[in-house]
Structure formats: structure tokens, C-alpha cells
Model the fold of this input.
Amino acid sequence: MKKKVEILAPAKNLYQGMAAINAGADAVYIGAPQFGARTNATNSVEDITELVRYAHLFKAQVFVVLNTILYDNELATCEKLIHELYHTGVDALIIQDMSIMEMNIPPIVIHASTQANNRDPKHVKFLSDAGMKRAVLARELNLDQIKDISKATDVELEFFVSGALCVAFSGNCYMSIAGGERSANRGSCAQNCRLPYSLTDGTGKTLIANSHLLSIKDLDLSDQLPNLIEAGITSFKIEGRLKDLVYVKNNVSYLRKKLDSFLENNERFEKASSGRTFFNFDAEMDRSFNRGYTDYFVNKRTASIGSWDTPKSQGQVIGKVLEVKANGYVIENSDKLNNGDGLFFINEKDEADGTQINTVTNGIVIPNNYKPIKVGTMIYRNADAEFNKLVEREDSAIRKIGISLTFSETATGFKLHAIDEDGHTSTSTLELSKEVSKNSDGVIDNIKKNLSKTGNTPFIVDAVTIDLSENWFLPISKINEIRRIVLEDLIDVRVAAYVRKEHQIQKTEHPYPVQQLDFMYNVSNKMARAFYHRHGVTEIEQAFELQWDPGKARVMTTKYCVKYELGKCPIHQRETMGEKLIEPLVLKNGDNEYKLKFNCKPCEMEIWEKDADLVFDEEEY
Done:
């Protein structure tokens, strides 16, 4: 049997979830009314129910995100919500907090969020043995590490392949709450990593002023899909539950075409859902929100990944400014530009800047707000007016399920039988007296033509067979009626035939990979504590949110490295780095200061608050 491979899309709301499915997503993930890590992307149980029915029509899945940490006074509410979600028909829950594994919940499939320390074979195997059916792997992993995890367990593996990157290990960023009481693990990240910082060394010298030193590019692994499949990934996840409709449809469509080309005539892998999508636009990832792209660490540490100029969208490369006019600019490839487009560039002060196009006239780009731009400056388009307008249309991506129709006669009339691409059937009869048509020319063709008109239904007719003994007279209204009845029934048949996988969580006692948990394990309630104790953990520190010591905390751990970005890595850039930097390096933004600590053996960087007393080990370097 072939292994199914899926594209998993974000759904900010019901409408965008349906649009993602229409664009070719095999599954969508969506926030519930509470407990999702994006407080601005919540949805009612009623809307989730409607999305489930629509998704299941195409044999696509719906996963609900319950990935915040929970407090003791929220446990009963969360348990009640899970029962409600189970009855909507959702296919799985994505969780971080292990308290859910202790609850009295229905037989619903559980996925481990990337915030659940899914970074090595031991932790992922533990979660699998505990009853979780899928692990969303840490974004920082490379192909070899993914292969090692895949060999250690048969749990499904999911991996982010496009969208914004958290600079920290997922679940281990506390800058937001340390700086202003907004917890990322509670769904309210303030995105401190996207702020501008100045970098000073141990002497107080400013090395870099006012740059977005923790902001990194967006992820694009679209060229790595075959390698990731071979490594063991079966679900390709798109980040972006707060992104707009154009972003979702564009990313899904682009990846759909990429994956389909790999799956075509593949003997081992197949698409995870039904139907095929017809596009009225050419998907290009750089035409929707992006900060420039990186493959992150999937091929190990090889290049700069910082997006220091701006945390905002850079967009699509257009070309250099060739000439400056009194009211506009002559730009390479200006024929790509349209009225209303947004332009991005780095101005003469080395700052990110932009303007909007009013008109493009005789090769001259005339902005709404004229700004001086030097000749030779690279211009990007970060808002594509015509593209956005096209993609926002409902008919820009239409998904259809292939069917075959057979129209035949009965003793008292006629019968229409439909069979879809998955083998589901629907039949309806038409009671009608039979009269031979006075004009027999084109009768059969006319019946075929009208039976093939599927309109706004989710079906497309791939074949029509007409089996009649005579060229009977048939009113077009009757043909349309029987077709409508059959297709409406086939929708109900498909939804009713959908089989949701279920799994009842049982309490287990196999040992957790470590016996002492620090605050980075985010244990914030009594039930999560009980879960870990039962699995052999002896010491459990409270979650950061419950015991933060102002001014002295470690607020981030990351594979991203400021030294590497500066060309000063003593491991990878020793031959070219020149003089060592004098530590501690300090990031400053207003009154906020953070010390950087570099752990070179695991190739990680830590960010600490200013009053932390750090020891710098020279042997690390």
C-alpha cells in the first residue's frame, strides 16, 4: 500500500480553511475558541463543524490547535472543549501541555506540537509510546536528524516547509513575557525578536546600531520535498494562522504543484486526499508575504539566515533603479509592475523603506509619495495589486472530484448512476413516459452535454456513458433535475462514508528520557506534573510564567547565532573570523538589555536578561 503524503495548511478562519482545501491542501489546522497559540485566530465550534464537513467531502483532515500551556483553573474547561471538538468530527488535536494526556477525553487522535521538545529520537519515541500518533518536529532539525528520528519510531512526522520562523526553539522563548507580561506559550507573543537592537561588546563599544538582529528570513523548503519524504516526513506544514487569504492560497497552490510532480507515477507515495485543483493564477511564493527565504538548518548551517534590514515583507525582486526622474524612477523590469503595487527598498540611510505606485507611464514608475532613491538601488515588490486581486477571487482555485456517469433506461423511465474517483456511488431514477424524439440528430450528444454541467458542485465529469435502446425525447429540465439529485446525494454519501481514525489514550508508565525538568519544559499545572512523575521524572521546575525572576532569566535558546551572522564563529569561520569578539555581547532596545551566551558544542545561542551572572567558558571556543 502506498504511503500518503499531505500538505497541511493554516486556517485563520472557516473561509480561509475552505479556500486552503480548494487550493489543494490535504489537511488544515485551525484554532478553537480557547487555548491556541494565536489568540487572534480563534474560531467557534460551529465554524469548525462546518469546516470539518467541507474537508471530509474531499477526504481532507481538520486538526484543531490546543497548544498553549494550561493553568490549574483551566483544566476542566479544556477537557469540556475537547469533548465538544470530538463531536464536531475533527481528526486530531495538536497539543503542547501533557495535562491533556491525563484528562478523561474521548478517543481522539493526539499530535505533539513542535513545542513538546520534538528534537531527538528519545523524546519523539516517548511521545509515540505514550499514545500520540504524530509529532510536529522542531524546525531546527537537519535531514540526518530527521532520519534518525524516523528510524527510532513509526509515529507520523510533520515538518514546517514554508512561512515565518521562530528564532527560538518552539516553546522556549520567554522574551515576550519577560518584557511585558505577554506569554508566547499562552498565545500572546509580542514578537520581541522582530524589534531593532544595537549590539555592544564587552568594552561597551557599539558594533551594530539599530538593526533587527534577531529577525530571520522566512522558510522555503519547497525544493526539499523529495529529500524530506525520503527522510521520513509525511506531512508538510505551512506556517501562518495569522496570514491573509492570498498568502494561504499562494503557498498551498505552489506546494501542491511541487508535490504533485513528485507523486506522479510514484510507486511508494500518494496524495492524502481526493480531487484535483484547477488554478487561474501562477503561484509564486515570493509574490506573497516574505522576508526573503532560507532553508534554515535542513542542510545544516551553511549560510546567513538573518533578515536584519526589516522584519516586514521584502517581497519579490524586481530590479535596480536605472534612472531617477523628477516625479519617478526608471526601474529594470518595470513591465512587471502595476498601478497600486507596493515597493520595498533600502534607502540612503541604510534603512528599510517603501512607497506605493500610483501609475507606470511610458516606462516611468510614478509613486504616490515620491522618495529619493539612489541609482543602483535594488527594488522589491512587497504588495502585488493585480496578483492579490486575482488570487482573492473564489474561482482562482477550484477543487473538483472526478466522477463517471451512466444514463440508462428502466421499465418506467430512466436512471442516472454516478461513481466518483474513490468508488462512492449514487443513483436516481426518473419516472417518465418514453417517446421517440422526432428529431433524433444530436439527442445523445445533448444528453451528455447537459449531464456534464456540474456548475458549482464539487464534481467534474470525466466520462459519460449513454445506454438507451432508442433516441428518446427527454426534456432538458428533467435531465438537469436527475443530475442535481444524484450529485447532491453523492455529497452526502461521501461525507457519511468518511472514516475518522480514533485512538483512546491509555495511561502509560514508560520512562521519560530525562529525570529532571527545568522551566523550559513548561509544566504549569498539577495534571502535567502528575504525567511526568508517573513516567519517572523526579524533579520538575515550574513553567517560566509561574516563577519568573525579573532581570536574571534566560529568555531564549536558539540555533540562530549572531556570531555566525557576523562572520565571527570560532567553529565554522575560524580561518576568516579575524579578531575574537570581546564578551559579553549585549543587545539593547530602549531600556531592555540582553546578554548573549554562545554554547558552541551543541551550536546554540542563549539570550539572558541584563542582570544575569554569566560565566563564559573559553574552552567552548
In short: The longest strand covers residues 397-410. The chain has a mean pLDDT of 94. The chain is about 25% helix and 25% strand. The two ends are 50 Å apart (CA to CA).
